[in-house]
Design goal:
Helix 5 crosses helix 8, helix 5 crosses helix 11 and helix 8 crosses helix 10. The protein is about 80% helix and about 0% strand. The protein is mostly helical and about 290 residues long. The protein has one domain: MetI-like (MetI-like fold, Orthogonal Bundle).
Length: about 290
């Protein structure tokens, strides 16, 4: 009997690896665990859309007063760069974005640290921050015009609010997600306040804060579009408003694409900073 049982088990064992192999194959297929396509393939659909756009404009299906053709947009881009209109507009918008971002980041860091590390700060500061979070930026425009006029302050403050809220939320969440055992270790090692900040708070909160920084930069450009609708005399928003009055869709598209390009560049810069600042995580995993 023992011999017969051993023989049966011996005959059944090869089936398990086969089932496991099929199961793993199906799991890889469901996860999309396949060889990645070349990066050039990702450009096929955008190029195809631009070609279709140009064809629709050439045959008259898409009038220029509705949307200018890509060829007309490129021609207009050259003239805007040559006469200095686009560089000057980018410079003015960048100045507003940078100043608003610095102000909003300062507010977010101060409020986030107080709320994330203090119960009293949470009770005092978090409710008004949550209230501001739910107010749309466009709803603040009339009040800001009354309070600060149509100058640069109202525009800069709108950008600051757009930056402060996402950065604040991510910073608070990052501080609260730090492992409590790390504080126990800091107590056992009798670390000073500066050492706790350097070895516990900064490494623990940095990943979430950088995610919030990327979101804040994205909201900064969205808020800037809103801000530059307030009687601006320069900047990308001013250029777009003038183009709207004269039905210059090519200039409008150039302004929007410039906003998008600036957003991609700033996001890419933060991603580079993120890889360098969090290099210790990869080193720790490999170790």
């Amino acid at each position: 009997m023992a011999t017969t049982t051993e023989v049966r088990l011996t005959h059944r064992r090869p089936a398990a690896p086969a089932r496991e192999l099929r199961r793993n194959t199906r799991a890889r297929a469901l996860r999309g665990d396949r060889q990645p396509l070349p990066w050039e393939v990702r450009w096929l659909s955008p190029i195809g859309l631009v070609a279709l756009w140009q064809l629709a404009s050439a045959v008259g299906w898409l009038p220029s007063n509705i949307l200018a053709a890509p060829s007309a947009i490129f021609t207009r881009l050259g003239s805007l760069v040559a006469d200095g209109t686009l560089p000057n507009a980018i410079g003015a918008s960048l100045q507003r974005a940078v100043l608003g971002f610095l102000l909003g980041a300062a507010i977010a860091v101060v409020a986030g640290v107080i709320v994330g590390l203090s119960r009293i700060g949470d009770a005092v500061l978090d409710p008004p921050m949550q209230m501001v979070r739910t107010v749309p930026l466009l709803g603040l425009v009339p009040l800001f015009i009354i309070w600060f006029g149509i100058g640069e302050w109202s525009k800069m403050l709108l950008v600051a609010i757009g930056v402060a809220i996402p950065l604040y939320l991510n910073l608070v969440a990052a501080l609260r997600s730090i492992d409590p055992e790390l504080y126990d270790v800091a107590d056992s090692l009798d670390l000073t306040v500066a050492q706790r900040v350097r070895h516990v708070l900064v490494p623990g909160a940095l990943p979430g804060t950088l995610v919030g920084l990327r979101q804040a930069l994205g909201f900064a450009w969205l808020a800037l579009i809103v801000a530059e609708q307030i009687s601006a005399t320069n900047g990308l928003g001013f250029m777009i408003n003038n183009a709207r009055d004269f039905l210059q869709t090519d200039t409008i598209v150039i302004g929007l694409l410039t906003y998008a390009l600036l957003g991609l560049l700033t996001d890419g810069a933060v991603r580079v900073l993120e890889r360098r600042a969090l290099r210790w995580r990869e080193t720790g995993v490999r170790a």
